[in-house]
Structure formats: C-alpha cells, structure tokens
Write the structure tokens for this entry.
Amino acid sequence: MSADDPIDRSAVPRRSAEPLPWQCRFAADLLARRSGWGHALLLTGPAGIGKRRLAEVLAGALLCESPRSDGSACGECAGCRYVAAGQHPDLRVLEPVDVDDEGVAKPVEAIVVDRVRSLTEWVQVTSHRGGSKVTLIVPAERMNAAAANALLKTLEEPPSGTFLILVSHQPGRLLPTVASRCQRIAAPRPTVAESVAWLAGQGVGDPERLLARAGRSPLAALALGGADDQAERASWLAALARPGALSAVTLGARIDALPREARKDGLAALIGWLAGWCDDLARVRFGGEPLQNGDMKAELGALAASVAPIALFRYHRALLHARALLGHPLQPRLVAEALLIDYRDLFGR
Ligand SMILES: [Zn+2]
C-alpha cells in the first residue's frame, strides 16, 4: 500500500460523512460560504441533533483534496479516504475518552490539559498532506478550565490553514474567552416529522414514542432504540407498574451488577424511565393519554387514581434534580434506591 493509497481497496469502503437530512440545506449554505469561515467554529444546539455529524462534514470538506464545485468533500481522493478510515494525519479529534495500552477507549470525565498541550504542539507542525489541519473538540464544554486556558493561544493565533471546530450543547459552560474567539454556528434542529422519518429509515420501531422519551433528540432516540434497551425498559416498567411489590434494594442491585463504567449510564436510563413514567402518570391522572409509554396505558390507568398530584409533581422535580447531578461522582446504586423508595411512597402503601 503506497502512502497515497491509505486504504486497501478490497476493504469495504467507508463513506465520508454526509449531512443528516435536516442538515443538507444548511450544510450546503455553509459550504458555499466556506471562504468566510473563521479559523475557529463553535457549533451549538441541543444534544442529539447531529452537531458532531455536521462538524465531520465540515472537517471532511476542509481536508478533501479535490472538493466538488459546491464545496463538499469528493469522497474519493486520498484525503477523503484517510478521513473515512479515521487515519488522516492532519485531523485530530479531542473528546473525553482515554485509550488504554490495548487500544480500548473508555469515557472519562474531562478533556484534560495534557491533551490540549499535545494538540497545540501538533498544530504547530507543518501539515502532512500540504492542506488544512483540522481539530474537532467534542463536546468542547468537557475541557476543564486548565485545558480551555491552554487552548486560548491557539484559538487566538492559529497557524494558517488550521481550523478548530468546537461542538457544544452547553456553550454557556465554555470559558467566555474561548467562546468569544469562535465563530458561532447554531446547528439546525430537526422537526418532529423529520426525526420520525429518519428514525423509521434507521429501522427503529415506534419512533414517535422513542423520540418523545429522548426529549426530541433523534440521535438519542436511535441510541435508545437498541434491543437490549427495550428489554431493560420492559423490565423496569413492569416493576414501576407494581409499586406495592417493588423492592428498591433488589432493583438497586441491578445497577451494581453493571460494569463499573456503565453504572452511571444505567442510572441515567432508570431516571429517564422514571421521569417518562411519572410524566405519563400525571397525564393519565388528568384524563390525558400517555405520551411516552402508550404500550402501558392500562397499568398507568390503574395507578394514576392512587397518586396525589402534588406528590407526583414534587417527585418529578426530584428526578430532574437527580438527572442534573449525574455528572458528579456519586453512588449510582444508592441514588437509584433512594429514587425507587420515594417512588413507592408516592402510592401511600
Ligand atoms: Zn476528496
């Protein structure tokens, strides 16, 4: 394999990133205005709407060595093939993951200063392929303060041909000095109809319900749509449907049964199910239809009569609070147990 032929042609070709359907027109407009891009872009918008995909589309266009007339990546040149293989020497992705000695990536809390220092050294090196050098920082708000500070100089005076694309769904958490040095771009949000059509196209059954559960984020809904998740949901909801028989300790132990690094996600999923369930209980209590758990209408109806609306409201607020604290170190199992005990108490055994 020569240096100009990064990918074995017999291998299944990976395509360059294409915009999601609701991003097509927006991406085309952006690409048409490419000469006006600053060297640092900040893509903002709610989680799960495809900001990272859009960032990858822009990065692909910057690294393509023979872009199409509309500015998009050709998908065929050596640059595009390196990008598609995840091996472009002039592309760096900074994200909160650590890769261990065996090459296994594990999520970590923050993008730390050492990672940014290594990046700032890297941007000073001449481009390997003689074109742009591109860095994606996803999500940018996960840089801790030292890391963000270490990035300032590069943001201020990047070597020519260097582009930084920051992706953030919480831009308010960025250092103002970082945010102010970036050209801010609000990523397009899909309509419900666009999301549902896309999810259906991905083979997701019941896309409306999943989308509602995922707070209207289609990518989060897609992640929720996995078969394992469906089985897990069914088993938790069966327990919630019978609060009188619910054992918080037994159920809490299910969180501890997960691998350590998955426990926080397990708790997040439980909080999501509890929140959706209580939301539906409130709807049914006031004569409405369940929105997120339409398949459990009978169970919700049986419970709704015995719950006090004010207690339910308070509990829902406690769930949102617990969700907001998810990023902090805590004992996922104990939080799950406390939430389940409070849930059981809603029905005044
Ligand atoms: Zn290309």
Remarks:
- The domain at 226-345 is CATH 1.20.272 (Zinc Finger, Delta Prime; domain 3).
